[in-house]
Amino acid sequence: MTYLKALNWRYSVKKFDGKKIPSEKLHPILEAGRLSVSALGLQPYHLLVVENPETIQKLVPGFYNSSQISTCSHLIALVSKTHINKEYVDNYFSHIINERGVTLEQLSSFRNNINSLLETQTQKELESWSEKQSYIVLGSLIMAAAQENIDTCPMEGFRPEIIEDVLQIDKASEKIAVVLALGYRAEDDRFQNFKKVRKPADKFIKFF
Length: 208
Prior knowledge:
Helix content: 40-55%
Radius of gyration: 19 Å
């Protein structure tokens, strides 16, 4: 499926059919999330993939609209960091050094840029920045899924305290930013037959 066909094909599914996504379809989607754009490469987020049916059912009470959760194949929770400390940055640079065969001295300018970001932003600003970064990953996951003919529904309407308890989130340093349900659209989900409505190009795009 081409990129634009995938965009036209996809919609936010309201009800899945319960069929399980095979691993050969799921793994490329998760890899797209791992390779997604990340400011400074810091990846201040990670993914929790829920595939156990019993765990998924435990999460149902945590959502205001539960039809997608109770019928999906997999649930991906995008967890963003609320604190980025020196240890996290040190580990990041150790990873770069190991992967690229460079020295810390060669990365000093880059390290200074990251330190400057962390030192000039308030805690609330850094938390917001991390959360925004996770939404970039969300877009990558949705598009990769569409190109694999896998349906999705991004969800923000949830009770974080329930989701975080079930998934054992470290509330002192991270939070659930957004959740993505994956699966196959149910035959009786009438929304799949609706024409996609977006602003016309001349109202949406301006050239200067």
